[in-house]
Each structure stands twice: as C-alpha cells, then as structure tokens.
Amino acid sequence: MGDTEEPMSILRDVSLHPPEWNEDGGEIQWVLLDHQAYVAERHNATTAFSRTWRGEQFQVTLCLARPPRVSYLCVFCPGFEHTVFSMEPDILAMEEDLVLLRVIVSSKWEFLDDADYYIYQATDEAAGGGPSLKRLPRPPRPYGFGSHQVGILRCGARHQWRDNALCRPHRGTAGDFYIVAALCKERSSMVPEDFVIFLYNSSSPTIWSTHKISVDSNQHGRQYGCYFQHRNSKVISVGGDSGTMGFVDLWRGIILCDVLKLQQGKTTPPIRYVTLPPPLLPGRADWDDDARLARDIAVVQQGRTIRYVELQVNWKPHPTFRGCYFRDGWVSRIWTRPVDADCAEDCWKPGCKQESSDIPIDNNPHFKLLPVMMDHSGMTMEPFKGLFICQPTLSLSDDDDLVYFMTKAKSMDGKAWVIAVDMKNNTLQGVDGFAAERTIDFGYMHSRISKYLTAGTGTKGNLKRPGTVLLGSSNKKPPGFWMSMPPWDDEQKEHDTEMEVDGDDMILT
C-alpha cells in the first residue's frame, strides 16, 4: 500500500505517560533501562537533539535511577502530535556511553520500511563534551535487526582499561570510534551455519559493510545436540586488539568474531564457538521462547570475565486437577569464564547457586512489597511460590553477586516488581515497582551509561510501591494462577505418577 496523508501510528496511550519519581543522589555506576521509550517532553542534562529523515527535530532524554528501579528514555518532537512516531522508539543496544535507538517516522502502511537507527552518545567531544544524537545510514535492504541481534563495540584510547585487560579494544591515540554490528541469517543459504554480519564504523560514517561468515564443523561440533542451531539472543562486546564481539544464543552458545579484522574482499578471520554451561535441570529448556526471559550474560570485572546466569522455575502438579501445574519457587546459578580462555576447553566455573526457598524472610521489609499469593484453598503461600518470575539480569558492578529478576502475580499483569537478590549472601536486597503495561515478556536492559552522565538526570515525583494481596478461593482457580502444561521429561512424569499414587498435597503453605 502506498503513502497515506496521515502518519501511520500504533503508538499506545500508556507510552505517553512515563513514571515519575525523585531523582537519585550520588553517582550511579549502572542502570536498568526500559527497552521501550516513552513519548513525552522531558528535559535535563542528558537531553540531545537530532532530526528525522523527513526533517522534524526531536529530542531524547534519559531519566536515570538506581537499580532495582528501572530507568527510562523519553523522546519528544516539539510542534508535532505524538502520532508522528509510528510506534514506540526502542533501545536495541548499549555499550559504555553509547545507546543504539530505533525510531520510526512514516506515513506508510508498511512503516517498518522507514525504520531509522540513531546513536545517542553521553560524552561527545564534538558536542563540547555533552550528549549528542546522530542518525545512522540505513542498513542494506531487505535486512533489519532487533535488540537480540545487534551490539556496539566501543573503541579508542579512552575506552581501554588501565590494567591492560585483554578484552577492550584500542586504537592508540588516533581517537575514539565505535562499531555497530548485527548478525543475521544468510537468506540465500539453507545451511544453519551461514550468517551475515552488518557493520557500521563511525570512522567511515557513510555506509554499512556486509560480511558473510560461517561456523565450521570443528567449531559447531562443540554444541550440544545432533545438529547445529543458533538463534541469537544478545550481543556482547568482548574486545581486544581484534575487536572481538560475541553473538550469543542464550540457550546454546556464543559465536565469537573479530569484527575489526573483517574487511571487504579479504579472507574472513576464524570464527570461534563457545558452548554455554549445561542447564540446571536438563530437559526443561523451552527452545522456542525468548531465552532472555531465563538467562543473561555480560562482560564484567573491567572486561576480564564473562558472567552468565540461568533461571529455572520449579513446577509442581496440582493435587486435584490433572495436567495442571503451579509455580513452586525457582532456582538460579551464576557461572564465570575468563575472556581469554581457550574456546575448545570447558572453562566455565560454577558460582553462586540460589534456591528461592532458602532466602530468609526474618524481618526483611522488602518482602512486604511483593504480592501475596494464595493457594487453591485460600491459604497464604510462602514467598515466591505462585509468583511469575522471569528475566534474570546480571549486575554490572564488579564487586557483587547481585541478580535482578522481574516478578508479577500473573504473567500478563501490567504491574511488576524488580527484585534484587544477593546470590552470595542469600538475601533479598531490594524491591521496586515496574510499569509493565507495555511489556509482554522482555522488559529492560542493563547499561553503564549512567557513569558517563552528570547529576540532575531524574524527573520529579514519587514512585508508589504498595504491596498487593491477591485473593483466591477454595473452590475456584484464581485466573492466570494455574497453568496447564505437559511434563517436560520422563523424570517429571515419573514424579507425577508417584504423587498421584501417594496422594500427597503439593501445595506448600
């Protein structure tokens, strides 16, 4: 369908009303940032300006807060209705002082054709050391990419670590630059090992380069299973003099590529493959789901370590309704691996493992902020039992073992809570509300951009965080609480059979 006179917009009303809260004092080393922007006028020290492809001026402002509170980004186009944006601008990738945004302004029915990509830079020397916003050239068609496919590599003398860590790239004193890299399947190939990498280099800012890569049998043979699969979930910046980036399938493994060595017309540098640790409970991974809802990965400790976390929900069968299960808490584990470890070796080191049932309640006030769940008989359940939980997100601090989780009373609720769990010290360290009306599943990303920004980046107001009690009934299933689903494996099936024979009550109160 051709162009229409009016802008094409599916922007939701909830995206016009960002949360309000008081700004946090002091330095914030890193943040959790909502991956969808709000369309609202906000202005502070982080505000930067640019223009759409049609010439409309718009602004981007960051509203930052200390985790577990979720920060957010606002876009605004002065003099125009909010419908100038076809949908919510979204954050695709972040690295150090950079944010990659996708903004769509279009009058087409097929408005994704007018997707533009922008780099927000917190500290741009060309902008007097303040923030800047730059529109990138559009990638080659027909390819496009989302947050699970693209990442940023920060390069330059200012972005190498002082202790000569291997993972951060540098270019002497010639100046800073960055690379945006996206991994897509090779459309002309039926072979699962073939991919295309798109690169945008800020030192050559007019074009994207395209490079075909393939994972050879010596590398993909390390993957679990009978044949190779890779569905990218996240991109990490590993660095080094070769500019290594990791394209991560959080269910399976990491494709490592030296993007600074990719050159048109020259031999592709060797592609390496690192297998992720085995799952906590074999046979329970849902390979079709967004893996970011159950796992996360990050480069930490000044770039020396790759840290990985897995979440596994515990399920128990309902004692009366055959084939129905309820959430019975969760288990999570952290793994670490040196960035310079041999890809052929299993160098993952198991770290903290946490069972939700082991977290003491005592007089911890944070538990009062979480919803109280009832079992089928109307009895109060223990903390975390019955709650929907997803998206483990690693802290980017080098000196803690915190993992952040999103939790809800029901999976489709618009009200969520982000909880901070200290995996090493076995404590619930923080709880804060999260406006999840726009979030079906994946909600936010972690970023270090806050340490590059000056104070005064918040907005005025208060975020209310009331606890919620969800009432149940002894003769009626609470909506969204019971979940009908098949057992995953023979061990679960055998366990269910034993429970039916013994007739034990599976609800812990």
Structural notes for this entry:
With 509 residues, this protein is mainly beta. It folds into three domains: 1-136, no CATH class; 137-161 and 176-276, no CATH class; 290-442, no CATH class. It is 3% helix and 35% strand. The chain is built from two helices and 27 strands. The chain has helices spanning 217-220, 490-502; strands at 31-34, 38-39, 48-51, 57-63, 70-76, 90-95, 98-104, 115-121, 132-135, 150-155, 177-185, 194-201, 208-214, 234-239, 244-249, 253-258, 272-275, 295-300, 305-317, 324-338, 349-355, 388-394, 402-408, 415-422, 427-435, 444-447, 483-484. The longest helix has 13 residues, at 490-502. The protein starts with 30 loop residues before the first strand and ends in a 7-residue tail after the last helix. This is DUF1618 domain-containing protein. Residues 248-404 form the DUF1618 domain. InterPro entries: DUF1618.
> Averaged pLDDT, please?
81
What percent of residues are in strands?
Answer: 25-35%
Most strands sheet: 6 strands, mixed
Q: Please, how many domains?
A: 3
Percent helix among the residues? Answer: under 10%
Number of helices, counting only DSSP H or I runs of 4 residues or more: 2
Question: How is the quaternary structure best described?
Answer: single chain
Q: What are the segments in which pLDDT stays under 50 over at least 5 consecutive residues?
A: 159-174, 455-509
Topology pattern, helix = H, strand = E:
EEEEEEEEEEEEEHEEEEEEEEEEEEEEH
Distance between the termini: 58 Å
Structural class: mainly beta
Radius of gyration: 24 Å
Domain DUF1618: 248-404
Protein name: DUF1618 domain-containing protein
InterPro entries: DUF1618
